[in-house]
Amino acid sequence: MAFMLGEAGGSGTAIYDDDGTPYNLFEDYLAIQYMQDNVTGSPVIVEGHRTEYKWGSRFSVQTGLPSVIGWSWHTRQHNSLIDGAWFDKRIEKLNDFYNTTDLSTAKTYIEKYKVGYIIVGDLERAWYAEDGLKKFQELVNEGVLQVVFGDNTGNTTTIYKVNMQ
Predict the structure, then answer these.
(1) Which long-range contacts (CB under 8 A, 24 or more apart) does 54-63 make?
(2) CATH class for domain 2-162?
(3) Do 76 and 31 form a contact (C-beta atoms < 8 A)?
(4) Furthest C-alpha separation in the chain
(5) Confidence at residue 136, expressed as pLDDT on a 0 to 100 scale
């Protein structure tokens, strides 16, 4: 994970350019390190999805934790007997989860996939609707989620732990 620290000496300013959208990798580095050090077992995580060879699936790749939908091609290879449309629908449902403003819909998704943690960093803020991301604070207010890492703003990658299971 040293590449996420920036220039030699760890400047903390490693920037990834995803089709013109910059991500501060150092913020993800800190959050991933938190998960490596503090999460036990194999809880399912939800993180933003991107096509192959982009920054998607970064938490599942770096922690080994299962995600609702992992790196698309890897998932398709390991499940080659499943119709490809199944994966596309799963990705669509993930996108809908991040974009929805409906708390009931979000809770249903969390329950269905037995989600333990939700990630919101530069990637999610870049590719998902701002109004949809606001629901996570509402779910914190309801006690469904708790912030276990980050400051719940655009300054850090935030990790939400699910409390409803």
Answers:
(1) 54/18, 55/16, 55/18, 55/23, 55/123, 56/123, 58/28, 58/32, 58/123, 59/28, 59/31, 59/32, 59/35, 59/119, 62/1, 62/32, 62/36, 63/32, 63/35, 63/36, 63/39
(2) alpha beta
(3) no
(4) 47
(5) 97
Below-70 pLDDT ranges, the chain:
8-12, 50-55, 70-86, 165
Q: How much is the pLDDT for 4? A: 79
pLDDT at 79: 47
The full set of domain ranges for the chain reads: 2-162
Q: Residue with structure tokens 């995580």?
A: 45
Q: How far apart are CA 131 and CA 133, in angstroms?
A: 5
Whose structure tokens read 């609702």?
A: 68
How confident is the model at residue 76, as a pLDDT?
Answer: 42
Predicted local distance difference test score (pLDDT) of residue 73: 46
Instruction: Flag whether the pTM goes above 0.90.
Output: no
User: H helices within the chain, ranges in order?
Assistant: 25-38, 58-63, 72-78, 84-99, 103-112, 122-127, 130-142
Query: If 0-12 CB within 10 Å is exposed, 13-18 middle and 19+ buried, where does residue 148 land?
Result: middle
